[in-house]
Design goal:
The complex is a heterotetramer of chains A (323), B (396), C (126) and D (153). With 323 residues, chain A is mainly α. In chain A, 71% of the residues lie in helices and 0% in strands. The chains are: A mainly alpha (323), B alpha+beta (396), C alpha+beta (126), D alpha/beta (153).
Chain lengths: 323, 396, 126, 153
């Protein structure tokens, strides 16, 4: 029975099938919101109100010609998207969505899973760099370098931000942190700065406006993905969506009290909380212009990192005086 | 990373038209810039020599899509001078109105594109939505949204009726309210201002030395405007207007100049519509043009547009020379790009509002399977294309 | 001009509840204002075959040919002309409409001109 | 500056170097100089007469000669300087030292009419393709292109 549960967990919910379907849905929500913000309609004609459009886009890309540049390192060029997608899908398994993972530690919920999760979410960034570098195209190389520069800008604030709930609850396990905040909802308010820093850093990790510097189309064409086409590009696109879902779920589990109540209510909480985060991400995309890489680095180290540190100080202070 | 050459164009998402830049780049900094034109050279000047004046009117209108009316006005008024025609006052007013409405649509278009180049798509969508108002107005007057075909020798081709004037005034009032609102919103958005302030600096002396024209020159503080320097149509005599300048010399200053020019243009349009004189809109033009030569200038939305027409007494011109404003601004653009960031390339290029009106080219097609380079001329390429589609079952 | 983080945010939020400005075009047809310059339509009953339109057409999209010639009871010669119109060349400038002395050519309000078959772009009025 | 003032400055400074001076229309002035005196005429126009701006250069085939028209502008006046060169060895001096903005116009002149520009730093083709045959200049009157008419059967 347990084996079956594990299979269900990996393949159906919250594993591959769910992540695929839900991430396309989240992409639809994001596109629709973005369109509404801009007084447009957004996707309309595949499915009801364009609901199936992301899947249609994915299927279309899968069917397209797949070109590998002559001068590229073929093995690496082909492996990078698969590797990156696998990393993100694996990180999705660590989300504390199913009740059976709560009480006891298991392969998908253990002390330190928060670190593993942050690590798995950072892996695609390196994959992007490798993708850009092996493509041997000018634009891709530039995009790859920008990816790494960006990484050094947002990763530190991101890690500092996720540190604070862990310190507050005294646990390195997502399920424990979520349970703690469920029990003490008011303590969530102390972590608002951390949540804000986390959302901004997540936006940068997802490389969306205003931080879409690595693949700013008017500057470096497709950035690291310039030479990618067909199936591999589809994988990168899917990867970005899954990353958005997992990132939003990660922030919800850390700062918004997780997904209580077992299978069905937990699922509903998951949808509500991740969509709330996605709404913030979409709104951020709609109201800003893309900033330059030097401005981004300056912004991170002047504002984001100090804010995250301030959050840490607050948490340590509270922790010291907490009843 | 060391220095390397970054090609931008002839096909690149930052450029909506084909032109080729080669940038010598050191990391994220542009060291040197070079330009190659001609991807769009259609041989219009040569073609004009074998067509009649009436046909040329429409040929020259198609030099550029956005400033179609400016080119048409420039050619029409040049030939009018050769013919010795004096268009009626109402015709001149409508000629000015078309020019100004075109300026509105072009500047709104540009603001949107500037937003898109720095990744601010919301701003792009809002300005282009508002641009629809002026596009509908132009369609209502002329029957087309892009190539209006309103100018002719001796006046304009269509008259305005009362209903249209009322609708035009309504449209302009709506634009007059919306434009400053959105521009203020955009101007208070820190990420947008961070991208355009202090970028692409063109000092006044450089602007004059490199012969910049239009909003690019005016944003460097140079008060030059053909409408004032060399008044044409109704300007100077009948229609009052102000020239907008700014001292900044950067992209922000160019945005400010265009924004203020928009407001000024709305006022000009309102003035024209409220003071439209009665009478005819055109006089009859002869088919043959007496021998002579003329230099005609018009202030297009990108700057000074110059046409030189030489007639030889027949119904076809001996020589027509067109100089679109963008060509005059390339030297200063190359100056602005040097020493800047790679990330600033699109917005600095967009800041002069480039429009590339430039003969069919030979295309080089590399046959992948044979691995050899095969040079195809235009005719072979066309046949190749037809064959390509026929194989796929599409009847041509 | 003062800088404010998220200056567009209220405006953007307002648009969530506004009617969209775009139209689902191919599914909902658009109308054009009167005086729109579509395709030239020729009335053979009015044409006198003066070739003015052919001479002035900037894109050489028109051809006028004599179809028939007959003499009626009063001995008057009645000629009928046909017009071949190449839509693939037309630039919709309406010069033919303007120059026609008998108003035989009028531009319609057609603007969806794309065709899969190039033959469909050759239109003959007679 | 009025037309009379400009005329006086030009005649005082250039004297007999001006072969012909006409004012066919208000705010328009045409002068004809030998090509040897072209740069001097431009310098006088810029430094003494205030023509700060070069609008464009129009190259033209007159039949037996090639000529170039330099359109200079200031507020209220457009001055056109005409200079001719023979067909066999068409050569004109560069005006870039006087008007920095003329660099692309001169390349265009070189491209389309094959007038050599003496002293121009960079005479690569600007608008014509690199594989365009040498010594074929499309804007000369003896160059004809017979377009094939595409007809729908």
């Amino acid at each position: 029975m347990d084996i079956l549960k594990v299979f269900l967990y990996i393949l159906v919910y919250p594993g591959l099938l769910f992540l695929f379907i839900y991430s396309t849905f989240v992409e639809w929500v994001d596109r629709k919101l973005y369109a509404k913000f801009q007084n447009r309609m957004g996707p309309m004609h595949t499915g009801s109100h364009g609901l199936l459009q992301p899947i249609a886009d994915f299927v279309k890309l899968m069917a397209k010609e797949d070109i590998v540049p002559d001068s590229a390192d073929k093995g690496l060029f082909n492996a990078v998207p698969v590797f990156a997608l696998a990393a993100v899908l694996a990180s999705g398994l660590l989300l504390p969505v199913w009740h059976f993972a709560k009480g006891i530690e298991s392969a998908t919920s253990f002390q330190g899973d928060i670190i593993v999760m942050a690590y798995l979410l950072a892996l695609p960034t390196f994959a992007y760099f490798l993708a850009g570098w092996t493509s041997t195209s000018m634009y891709a190389a530039m995009g790859g370098v920008r990816v790494l520069t960006l990484l050094f800008a947002y990763e530190v604030p991101m890690f500092l931000a996720i540190l604070s709930p862990a310190i507050m609850t005294g646990s390195w396990r997502l399920a424990d942190i979520a349970a703690y905040f469920q029990a003490h909802p008011l303590y969530m308010l102390f972590n608002l700065i951390g949540f804000a820093v986390g959302v901004v850093a997540l936006q940068a990790k997802l490389e969306r406006v205003p931080f879409d510097i690595p693949h700013a189309e008017t500057e470096v064409v497709g950035g690291a993905f310039t030479e990618y086409s067909g199936r591999k590009l589809a994988m990168f696109r899917l990867l970005a969506d899954v990353q958005m879902v997992v990132g939003a779920g990660f922030l919800s589990a850390l700062f918004l009290g997780g997904f209580p109540g077992g299978l069905i209510p937990g699922f509903i909480w998951f949808v509500i909380k991740t969509l709330a985060v996605v709404f913030i991400l979409s709104a951020m995309r709609a109201v800003t212009a893309r900033i330059r890489i030097d401005q981004m680095v300056a912004f991170s180290w002047q504002y984001l990192a100090p804010l995250a540190l301030l959050q840490l100080v607050i948490v340590i202070f509270i922790k010291g005086y907490m009843p | 990373m060391g220095t390397f050459i970054l090609p931008v164009g002839p096909q690149h998402p930052a450029l909506k038209e084909p032109t080729s830049f080669r940038f010598l780049v050191d990391g994220e900094t542009v060291v040197d810039a070079d330009l190659r034109l001609g991807y769009n050279h259609r041989g219009i000047e040569k073609g004009a020599e074998s067509r009649t004046y009436v046909q040329n009117l429409y040929l020259l209108e198609r030099v550029c899509g956005i400033c179609s009316n400016a080119h048409m006005t420039c050619f029409a008024q040049g030939v009018e001078k050769l013919m010795g025609l004096e268009p009626p006052k109402r015709g001149l007013f409508i000629r000015c109105l078309m020019g100004e409405l075109e300026r509105v649509h072009s500047h709104l278009l540009w603001l949107g594109v500037a937003g898109h180049e720095v990744g601010f798509d919301t701003f792009f969508m809002y300005t282009w939505r508002d641009r629809e108002i002026v596009q509908d107005m132009l369609e209502m007057i002329s029957g087309n949204r892009v190539n209006y075909g309103m100018q002719t020798f001796g006046g304009v081709r269509r008259d305005l009726d009362e209903m249209q004037i009322k609708k035009l005034l309504e449209g302009i009032a709506a634009l007059k309210a919306r434009t400053p609102y959105y521009l203020n919103l955009g101007a208070s958005e820190p990420t947008l201002v961070a991208r355009i302030a202090g970028v692409g600096k063109l000092p006044l002396e450089k602007a004059v030395e490199l012969n910049a024209v239009g909003p690019t020159a005016r944003a460097s503080g140079w008060k030059s405007d053909v409408r004032q320097d060399d008044p044409y149509a109704g300007f100077g005599e009948f229609i009052p207007f102000n020239i907008v300048t700014d001292q900044g010399g950067d992209v922000l200053a160019r945005v400010v100049v265009r924004a203020k020019e928009l407001m000024e243009t709305y006022n000009i349009c309102e003035y024209i519509l409220k003071n439209l004189p009665a009478g005819e809109v055109r006089v009859k033009a002869p088919r043959k043009v007496p021998e002579g030569e003329v230099v005609s200038r018009v202030e297009a939305q990108r700057g000074e547009d110059v046409h030189y027409v030489r007639s030889n007494g027949t119904d076809k011109p001996d020589r027509v020379k067109v100089r679109a404003p963008t060509l005059a601004n390339w030297p200063s653009t190359l100056y602005m790009l040097r020493g800047g960031y790679v990330a600033d390339i699109p917005i600095v290029m967009a800041a002069i509002d480039p429009c590339l009106s430039c003969t069919d080219r030979m295309a080089i097609i590399t046959d992948v399977k044979r691995g050899s380079e095969q040079v195809m001329d235009w005719e072979t390429l066309r046949k190749h294309g037809i064959e390509f589609y026929r194989k796929r079952g599409i009847k041509l | 001009m003062s800088l404010k983080l998220g200056a567009m945010l209220p405006e953007v939020m307002k648009h969530l509840f506004k009617k969209v400005a775009t139209v689902p075009y191919p599914f909902r047809k658009l109308t054009v204002p009167p005086g729109f310059r579509g395709n030239p339509v020729m009335d053979p009953n009015l044409c006198i075959g003066c070739q003015m339109c052919v001479r002035d057409c900037p894109s050489e999209a028109l051809e006028i040919k004599k179809e028939s010639e007959r003499t009626d009871e009063q001995g008057k010669v009645i000629k009928r002309f046909s017009m071949t119109f190449y839509l693939d060349r037309c630039s919709h400038c309406a010069q033919c409409q303007e120059i026609c002395p008998k108003k035989a050519i009028v531009l319609n309000d057609q603007f969806e001109e794309a065709a899969f078959d190039r033959g469909a772009l050759k239109i003959i009025y007679k | 500056m009025t037309a009379e003032e400009i005329k006086k400055i030009l005649e005082d400074s250039l004297g007999s170097k001006i072969k012909e001076l006409t004012t066919p229309a208000p705010r328009r002035m045409f002068i004809w100089v030998d090509k040897e005196n072209l740069v001097e005429a431009c310098r006088v126009a810029k430094e003494k007469a205030g023509f700060y701006h070069i609008s464009t250069i129009t190259p033209r085939d007159t039949g037996d000669k090639l000529e170039a028209l330099y359109h200079l502008a200031q507020a209220g006046m457009v001055l056109t300087i005409r200079a001719q060169t023979d067909r066999n060895h068409p050569m004109l001096p560069t005006v870039i030292p006087v008007y920095g903005g003329a660099v692309f116009y001169e390349r265009e002149v070189h491209d389309l009419l094959g007038i050599g520009i003496e002293g121009h730093p960079d005479l690569r083709p600007l608008v014509l393709p690199e594989d365009w045959p040498a010594n074929v200049f499309p804007l000369r009157k003896d160059w004809q292109y017979n377009r094939e008419k595409g007809v729908i059967e």
